[in-house]
Design a protein that fits this description.
Blueprint (H helix, E strand, L loop, with lengths): L1 E5 L3 H6 L4 H10 L2 E3 L14 H5 L8 H7 L4 E3 L3 H16 L5 E5 L2 E5 L4 H4 L2 H13 L3 H6 L9 E5 L2 H10 L6 E2 L3 H9 L16 H6 L5 H5 L3 H8 L1 H10 L15 E11 L2 H15 L7 E12 L4 E12 L2 H9 L9 E14 L14 H23 L5 E5 L7 H4 E5 L3
Parallel strand pairs: 2-3, 6-7
Antiparallel strand pairs: 1-5, 1-6, 4-5, 8-11, 9-10, 9-11, 12-13
Length: about 425
């Protein structure tokens, strides 16, 4: 059984203030939309229910959105605060023992099978997830940003997609459960094809399917797979499998640790002033006892803009470092990407490397030493693999393994496995 937690219009609710009134406005009380990012394309972000009812949707050009809805009110986006708020929700779910897959801000999944004994069955697991969703932390209470959590929907089903369909039909504080595949397939058959927009692999199929007159997932499941493959390729076959109640296994996130340092500026700063603040943040981050002598592999440099909104940039270091001078050189160049003067600057350590005291052999031998050359090459290869996985996830470095070279089916000859230097 897979449990889905859905917080509708999460990013908009956080950008609008995060309180109960902001959550109500985001769900349908007022025509709101996230304003285009400074320096980016003039397209609106997430929109409220009232704006969507007037024909405005996410990604629409700003001029067209204002033409369709003249009373549309633009809210500066706050991806930094949305990320922090979503991390609070994820940590609350992990606090009940769940291995969580974070699909997008406001949408999470976890398997309930291993938690039944801990919470007394499936009903206990769903009740524990609801309590974790409504449980505030002290910082959120001080900021008054707990209103969006009361809008959470919980659904459960045999697969991830079935659980999502159940959560979208659920009510706040009342979960919806699809207990067997037959019930889940019957429920999916009546759902609109717009449900496919919640998956990145099938989001682009929604409009073509609607133009072809396919309105529900039941109509999609009735189509022949060869016809879908010919018209849409692999995404079409995946959409049909989802409509039939099938899905891929969960991919829970790896347990990690984050360290953050932030500083408020007396006046909006840029240039040399921000470089001095960045140097102070690097020194404070390296001095944290929680670092335990580990090097830093991936960091997030973020700023709250003086004109409203936030900015962030993820930096993956080519080599795990703990030298403050080299860290400042690697991060200072990213400050030039700031679209406007900043009112606050923060630095977050997302991924850690080995302890700084760990080092290889002091002498690898002469240049003709084959063993020393292999060790040096393996060390460089390990650093490259670590950087790739920190930037693109654990599936970034794979190895082609030949398993059935005599097969006539190309997909059976070679499989991809994790690469280990």
């Amino acid at each position: 059984m897979i449990v889905c937690l859905h917080l509708p219009r999460f990013e908009l609710a956080v950008a609008a203030g995060g309180g109960a009134q902001a959550a109500e406005d985001a769900l349908g009380g007022a025509a709101l939309a996230i304003a285009p990012a400074p320096g980016g394309q003039p397209r609106v972000g997430e929109v409220s229910g009232a704006a969507e009812a007037r024909g405005v949707h996410r990604g629409m050009a700003l001029g067209e959105a204002l033409a369709r809805c003249p009373e549309l009110r633009l809210v500066p986006g706050d991806p930094l605060q949305a990320g922090r708020a979503w991390e609070e929700v994820a940590c609350a779910l992990e606090g009940i023992g769940a291995a969580v897959e974070l699909a997008s801000p406001g949408l999470a999944f976890f398997a309930a099978d291993g938690l039944r004994g801990l919470h007394g069955g499936e009903a206990g697991v769903i009740a524990a997830a609801g309590r974790a969703l409504r449980r505030p932390d002290r910082g959120a209470l001080d900021r008054g940003r707990m209103g969006y959590r009361g809008t959470g929907r919980i659904g459960a089903g045999p697969t991830r997609f079935c659980a999502l369909a159940a959560a979208l039909r659920a009510r706040p504080r009342r979960a919806r459960v699809l207990r067997d595949p037959v019930e889940a397939r019957r429920h999916l058959a009546a759902c609109p094809v717009e449900l496919l927009a919640h998956r990145a692999e099938t989001a682009e199929l929604v409009q073509p399917l609607c133009r072809l007159g396919i309105r529900t997932l039941g109509e999609l499941a009735a189509l022949r797979p060869d016809a879908l493959a010919d018209r849409f390729g692999e995404p079409g076959l995946l959409a049909r499998r989802l409509a039939l109640g099938e899905d891929t296994p969960l991919r829970p996130r790896e347990a990690g640790e984050r360290l953050e340092e932030a500083l408020e500026l007396w006046e909006a700063g840029s240039g040399p002033a921000l470089e001095r603040v960045l140097g102070l943040l690097v020194d404070r981050l390296l001095a944290r006892p929680e670092r335990r002598g580990r090097t830093l592999r991936a960091l997030v440099l973020a700023a709250r803009l003086a004109a409203g909104g936030t900015w962030s940039e993820r930096v993956v270091l080519r080599e795990a470092l703990s030298d403050p001078r080299r860290l400042r050189l690697a991060l200072a160049s990213r400050l030039a990407l700031l679209p406007a003067p900043a009112a606050a600057l923060s630095l977050v350590a997302e991924r850690f490397g080995p302890p700084e005291g760990a080092q290889g052999a002091l002498a690898l031998g002469s240049p003709d030493d084959a063993h020393g050359a292999r060790l040096a090459r393996r060390a460089r290869l390990g650093e490259a693999v670590g950087q790739a996985r920190a930037a693109a996830g654990p599936g970034a470095a794979l190895r082609a393994l030949c398993v059935d070279p005599d097969s006539r089916v190309p997909e059976r000859r070679v499989v991809l496995t994790p690469f280990a230097p």
